[in-house]
Every structure is written in C-alpha cells, then in structure tokens.
Design brief:
Layout lengths: L2 E7 L2 E7 L4 E5 L6 H11 L15 E8 L2 E8 L4 E5 L2 E3 L1 H8 L3 E5 L4 H4 L1 H10 L3 H29 L1 H20 L6 H13 L1 H17 L4 H15 L4 H30 L4 H21 L3 H67 L6 E12 L2 E10 L7 E2 H4 L2 H15 L5 E5 L7 H14 L4 E5 L3 H4 L4 E10 L2 E9 L1 H13 L4 H16 L1
Parallel strand pairs: 3-13, 3-14, 8-12, 12-13
Antiparallel strand pairs: 1-2, 1-4, 4-5, 5-6, 6-7, 9-10, 10-11, 14-15
Helix pairs in contact: 5-12, 6-12, 7-11, 8-10, 9-10, 11-12, 12-14, 14-15, 17-18
C-alpha cells in the first residue's frame, strides 16, 4: 500500500498518509486513534461497516487505499449504507473483499479472523508444503474435481433412473399407439366420404335401379324410344341431309344412354348394405379422433408429436448407456483420487511435524515460554480440501492440555501466534497489519516480537500498532498518532518521526517522561536497532 486517505472516520477528520516499504510502526498515547487507522484499512477489506464510525456531524466517511496501479475505496453513510469502489467503479462489498484479500491481511487483538476459522489453519499448513507436497496438493485438487464432477453426473443419472424408466415406458406406449395406427395425413376426408356412401348403400342401389329401368328395362324406356326415333331419322336421311345428320347425332346419344345404363346397372349389382365395413370405417375415424384428442389438433400434429416422442426416448435410452460409461470411467478416477489423497496426507503430516517445533520456538520467545502448539490432522471422508480436518491446537500454560487455538487463546496470544505463522510460513499478502501484537508482553519478549516483525518486513510491508518502544525502535518508518484540537473539536493527526522527534517519542514510550535517562535508553534502542 502506497498511500491511505481517510475522511470523517471517528475522530479523524482528514488524513493523508504515505506509507513506506518494510516495517512501519504507529505509536501514540492511549486513545489517540492509532487503531482507527487499522479500522480504516479493515473497511477496505469489505468488512461490515458500522455507521457509528462516521464522525459526529458528518454525512459519511470515506477511506481510500492506493496500491501500484490500483485504488480501493469505501464510503459509509450515517444511515449505514456502504458503497465500495475499485479504481473508481462501484462494486459489491464481496468484490471489494475478494480484491483486497490478495493485497492485505489484518491481524488484530479482536479480529484475528484467520485463526478463529479452522479452514485457515489448513491454508497455513499447506503454505508450508515443500515442492513435492505442493505437487501432491495440486494433483489432489485435479483428481477430486474430475472424480466429483463425474460422480455427480452418475449420481444424478442414478437418482433419476426410476423417473426415467417410468417416463420411457410412457413414451414407448404413446409411440406404439401412434405408429400402430399407421396414420396418413389427409385420410380422414377419404374415410368420411366412404362412410357416407356405405351409410346410404340401399338408397344408392334403389335409385340406380330406377335409372336402369327408365333407360332400358321398363316396358317403355329411353333406349327403346330413341331406337324408334333413330330408325325414323335413318329412313328420312336417305333423302335429306339434315335428317341424316340428326340420325348420326341420335345414334351417339343412344350409345351414351346405353353406356350410362350399363354403369348404373353395375352400381346396382355391387352396392349392397355392408354393416361390417361401415363399422370398420366408424372405428377407424374414432381412432383417429382419439389420437387427435391426445396428441394434436390434426393428424399432421399427431405425427409431429410422435417424432418428439422418438427423440426424447432416444435421449432417455442414451442416459442408460451413459450410466455404464460413467461407471467404467469412475473406477480409475477413484483410484487416482485415493492415491493423490494418500500422498497429500503424508506430505501434510510431514510438514506439521517440521513446522510445529519452529512455531513453538518463536512463540516461546514472544513472551509465552511454556507455550505448546501442534497441527492436529483428523481423518475424514475425502472432500474438496483432502482427507483430513486440520486444526491448530495450542496452550500457553504448562501442564494444560492442548485445545483449539480459536477457543482458548487470548487476543494477544492469537496475534503472537499469527506473527509466528507469518514468520515461519510467510504471509499470504504483500501487506500485513498487526494491532495489539504486544498485548501483555515486555522486556525480552518485546524485543523478540520486534525482531520477528523486522524479519517479516524483509519480504513484506508490515504495519504495526504498538505501545512498546522495543518494537517501535525496530521499524524503518515511525509514525506518531496524536489528538489535536481544531476549531473547538478533537481530531487525530499523524506525523512521521525522524531524528530527535523519534528519540523523544521512544523516550515517552519507555518512561512517560523526557528525562535524560529515558532519552539515553531511547538512543540505545535505536542504536541496537541500527546495528542489529
């Protein structure tokens, strides 16, 4: 973090703070507002915003942090409404938190959240894995993802198997009902016409018979009369051309009548009542109507529906094939997962055995000489993060059983354990902030804390709020936080200390006075800090 700007946060009215690389320390009288600076950065991590942080009489507070090529901002109003921004663009608090999580880690006495949640215990241990262990971790992640995705698909297919079978049976029944009917588009009109003919067969035969009688069979009939007329005109035609033409026309008419009479006779011969044929037609029409009622408004829609049934049935039948394929695929994936899980568990146990003694030594040097610490690995079913739950167990007192760090450690103890973890395993972000890391310690322990912070600051930007001169003297950049009065109101100011001003502040921290003895001690601390 290169710069921090704060407006109207608690007793801070306006503050622009330029931060340096390495070890930055903030000191000042109790109540001066040192932790407010940590609060400001905490807001940039997307933490819950409290409207009470807004300076009295102001509409809102604003915190802005500047990194190389990146700006994070957070505004909180008196109403409690919060607006987060990344490079000036409004984002959700979750997005702000995700971006900040890769930039800054805040460890403070009442918010060492990384140690209060066991999931971070696993992350700390995994960060200490050697190259082979990290390879095992990545192999497990890949194997678990492949196995889990395949198994989820398989379980999904298995869970729906009963429903799929029921659905397939229904589809087969419906498809068979349609296909067995051998439906043809347009057949209904033909069937209706034939039904009409069969229903009126007696009337058709009777009327055709009457026509045959009138044309040829009756005693006096059309064909006989025409024959008589034809004879007469033929005779006249021998002497008259017009009569001859008429005889020829009449001969054609007689032939036509005889032809019609013959066809009418055939109608009489072949037409008879056929109840069975009529019943069959009625049944066919009823079947088509039933299919339309169930599957479509027309026979064309019924056939289209059958096509859909076939497609869905093919999909369901494919699912059965997929189950067999997935079952065959899952076996080697399970083997790969179990193998990588065993390798990861072995690597984690080896890392825990290597790292725990290192952490114990540092923690004991930080003012807890009887402290003990271990990583407890409890086997569990293989999950996203492996086949063990990982928890840091701790106790600062001699003769007491180790317990969950998140349950038995005090705020100050948590901060010092975090400092040890950061020193041994490295911090996960480029900027690390400690508030109240010196709670309850002094003397040699304070010096040891300062040395560990100094070591961490070689690879990270470290910001520390402290009351101890032994820690402050180790810093590369020293800032004094103090209360000031402006316009009849109290505000917080921050000044970067150098030279005699820094000596004076260290002397105050050592003895609360500016005595020559305190000054000499302060200079000695700075000399020790410089010489190492």
């Amino acid at each position: 973090m290169r710069r921090l700007e704060i407006q109207n946060l608690a007793i801070i009215q306006q503050l622009e703070l330029t931060l340096g690389d390495g070890f930055n320390v903030f000191t000042g009288e109790t109540g001066a507002g040192k932790s407010i600076i940590v609060d400001a950065i905490w807001l940039l991590t997307g933490s819950r915003a409290d409207a009470e942080l807004v300076r009295t009489g102001e509409e809102s507070l604003l915190v802005t942090g500047f990194w190389d090529g990146l700006t994070l901002g957070r505004r909180v109003s008196q109403s409690g409404r919060s607006v987060a921004r990344i490079d000036g663009e409004v984002v959700s608090n979750r997005e702000l938190s995700e971006r900040a999580s890769g930039l800054v880690t805040v460890h403070w006495q009442h918010a060492a959240q990384a140690l209060l949640e066991p999931k971070y215990h696993r992350e700390f241990l995994d960060s200490g894995l050697d190259k082979s262990g990290k390879t095992s971790l990545e192999a497990y992640r890949v194997a678990f993802k492949s196995f889990n995705e395949t198994n989820a698909r398989l379980e999904g297919l298995r869970e729906s198997e009963r429903e799929r079978t029921r659905r397939a049976d229904l589809l087969r029944y419906q498809l068979e009902e349609i296909l067995s009917a051998k439906v043809q588009v347009g057949e209904e009109e033909t069937l209706r016409l034939e039904r009409e003919r069969l229903a009126n067969a007696e009337r058709i035969a009777l009327d055709a018979g009457i026509a045959v009688d009138a044309l040829e069979d009756a005693e006096v009939n059309a064909a006989g009369l025409l024959s008589d007329a034809l004879k007469a005109l033929t005779s006249a035609g021998r002497f008259d051309a017009a009569a001859a033409q008429l005889s020829r026309d009449l001969r054609e008419a007689l032939s036509a009548i005889q032809a019609v009479s013959g066809e009418a006779r055939e109608i009489v011969d072949r037409t008879a009542a056929d109840p069975e044929a009529l019943d069959a037609l009625e049944a066919r029409l009823a079947l088509l109507e039933k299919l339309k009622t169930k599957y479509g408004a027309s026979l064309r829609e019924v056939l289209e529906y059958a096509g859909g049934l076939q497609a869905e049935l093919s999909t369901l039948e494919q699912a059965e094939s997929d189950i067999l394929k997935l079952e065959a695929t899952l076996k080697p994936l399970r083997h790969a997962l179990e193998t990588s899980s065993a390798s990861l568990s072995k690597a984690r146990r080896a890392t825990a055995q290597r790292v725990a003694p290192q952490l114990e030594r540092i923690i004991r040097n930080l003012g807890m000489p009887k402290a003990r610490l271990e990583f407890a690995l409890e086997p569990v079913a293989m999950g996203v993060y492996g086949a063990e739950d990982i928890e840091i167990r701790f106790n600062a007192n001699s003769g007491e059983e180790l317990g969950s760090l998140s349950k038995i450690a005090s705020g100050g103890e948590l901060s010092r354990v975090m400092l040890a973890l950061s020193a041994v395993l490295g911090a996960n972000t480029p900027t690390v902030i400690f508030d109240e890391v010196d709670a309850g310690i002094g003397g040699a322990a304070a010096t040891a804390v300062g040395e560990q912070l100094e070591t961490l600051a070689r690879t990270h930007q470290v910001l520390v709020v402290t009351h101890l001169a032994q820690i402050a003297a180790k810093a590369t950049h020293h800032y004094k936080v103090e209360k000031l009065e402006r316009g009849g109101r109290t505000v917080t100011g921050v000044t970067r200390l150098e030279g005699e001003a820094r000596v004076r502040e260290l002397a105050r921290m050592l003895s609360g006075s500016d005595s020559s003895t305190a000054f000499a001690h302060a200079r000695e601390l700075l000399g020790l800090a410089v010489s190492g």
